[in-house]
Amino acid sequence: MKTELNVLCKCGCGKRVNSGRQYIRGHQNIGRHQTKTEKQHHRSANQNKILTKDHKIKIGKGNKGKIRTEETLIKLRMSHLGKTGYWNGKKFSEEHIKNLRISHTGLRQTEATKQKHREIAIKRMLWLNTRGWKQTSIEKTVEQYLNVKYPNQWKYTGLGGIAIANQIPDFININGDKLVIEVNGCYWHGCERCFPRKKCPGNALKDEIRKNRYESFGYKCVFIFEHDIRNSNKYMEQIDNFIGVTDG
């Protein structure tokens, strides 16, 4: 009768291996640096591979709770330097945006989701306050017009104080109407009119999603861009039309 030897994995993990094996499956690569050829081979093999739902869940559970070392974080930062993001230069079709709008229509959030949104909004407000975030000049211009034309009806909330579906509006109506006004800077929001070379295709989609989130809670929203405030009085007409249409 043969006796099985208490053979341990050669990687040094201290675990016992099956008879006839030297490593636990996968442990033979621990501490081993792959060559460029091997890395390229693995990339090519996994490039068009479609992961199943179970596989994704398994990967998620395997990565849950893992803490990356400072050395690993530095390597990741260095590997991404100079690279453009996946969404950079991509544009969404009108049909795609329409489908996204439809997919968000009529959705009802659970109490747990609402509470999660409240907690995220509070963290964001604290983040803004700790960094000395200030009201912009164009926001001040809009606030001044609202105070003169519609006194005691609007409040500036761009620095926090209120959140709707995890979104912090710039101005909100406090006279009983569910209305919000967003003031967009041309550079940061990728205005195609003022900055045609600055490609920010995701910003239009973000504004659309933002608008849909407001609408899911019954709020109507209008977006006003910087060039309509600095170069003309068009923003006044936009605000008047917005309030007039919604009141009517």
Task: Explain what the structure shows.
The chain has a domain at 94-247: Endonuclease, Chain A (3-Layer(aba) Sandwich). The chain is 45% helix and 7% strand. It contains nine helices and four strands, in the order ααααααβββαβαα. It has helices at 36-46, 53-63, 70-80, 94-104, 111-130, 137-149, 201-216, 226-230, 234-247; strands spanning 154-156, 171-173, 179-184, 220-225. The mean pLDDT is 81.
Secondary-structure map:
Blueprint lengths: L35 H11 L6 H11 L6 H11 L13 H11 L6 H20 L6 H13 L4 E3 L14 E3 L5 E6 L16 H16 L3 E6 H5 L3 H14 L1
Parallel strand pairs: 3-4
Antiparallel strand pairs: 1-2, 2-3
Helix pairs in contact: 4-7
Give a brief description.
It is built from nine helices and four strands. It has 248 residues and is of the alpha+beta class. It has a domain at 94-247: Endonuclease, Chain A (3-Layer(aba) Sandwich), CATH 3.40.960.10.
**What is the CA-based Rg, rounded?**
27 Å
Helix/strand-derived category reads: alpha+beta
Low-pLDDT residue spans = none
Distance between the termini: 94 Å
Order of helices and strands: HHHHHHEEEHEHH
What distinguishing features does this structure have?
Endonuclease, Chain A; 248 residues; four-stranded mixed beta sheet; 45% helix; alpha+beta
